[in-house]
Amino acid sequence: MQSVQDLATAVQRVVANVERVIVGKADSVAFSLIAVICRGHILIEDVPGVGKTVLTKAIARSIGCTFKRIQFTPDLLPSDVTGVSIYNQKTGNFEYRPGPIMAQIVLADEINRATPKTQSALLEAMEENQLTVDGVTYRLPEPFMVMATQNPIEYEGTFPLPEAQLDRFMMNISLGYPKPADEMNILDSHQHHHPLEDLAQIMTAEELTLIQTQVRAIHVDPSIREYIVAIANATRTHANIYLGASPRGSLALFRGVQALAAMRGRGYVIPDDVKLLAKPVLAHRIIVTPAARVRAITSTSLLDEILQSVPVPNAWVGGGKGR
Length: 323
Description:
Elements: H1 4-19, H2 26-37, E1 42-45, H3 52-62, E2 67-71, H4 78-82, E3 83-88, E4 93-98, E5 105-109, H5 116-119, H6 123-128, E6 130-133, E7 136-139, E8 145-150, H7 163-166, E9 171-173, H8 180-189, H9 205-215, H10 222-237, E10 241-243, H11 247-263, H12 271-282, E11 287-288, H13 290-294, H14 299-309
Parallel strand pairs: 1-8, 1-9, 2-5, 5-8
Antiparallel strand pairs: 3-4, 6-7, 10-11
Helix pairs in contact: 1-2, 2-11, 10-11, 10-12, 11-12, 12-14
């Protein structure tokens, strides 16, 4: 078993490799790797052309995982995602032909363009790492991760993701437009060819699976656990929140801060880890009341308010409360 420092070094090498392609978006890359380490799924919501698809491809290539892309459209059928059983006349049996979901990293591009019926084809895969086709259950490859994208400005011909689907995404992140200096670097790096073509593999899928197991040993003080639960509970009792974060959200935040601590070379979690991940992990799980929405109050601003009001624990390295 490798040390926390070795684990941090290995993950930082992957981060640096992805940042060769995704320029100036250190937080977004780090959040994506945290989700990968926690066996979570990511929803990337942003305007077209900022690198959502390239980020997914760069991560898949860096960790040596199989990659499939599903372009979601209104006419896409559930069987186009999961695969179908086809009758073989020679053998007299039905044979399963896997769909694109049978890959280690799956890009669900423009997921909100598909109908709710097709969107729901991902639910079992994202929660249980398995598929059921014609009554037969098939295991998905390990590690398995869905990275979905959606464009927030195009509401024509889109179907908003239901709460059950949103809750299965560990994080909701956005890339945003690059700074002028970063955009200059992008132009330079793309002058002769796409930098993704030269991207090297940094670790194997087996090494990633080992890291995923080791991260769960990172120490989380009881006071930090109470802090996570207090934040989640505050979202359920806030006057401007119609639907608060679920226990799945609390668990996602718990796993996320373990991975963040490991990436920073620590064997323990501190309150700042929780504060950093609270918004990308919890904001998309919160539904703001209609009255608050009219006043332009967002789930992100409400989480800022909650983080300021919930008492911060004073935890120390040894696993107890400070003096």
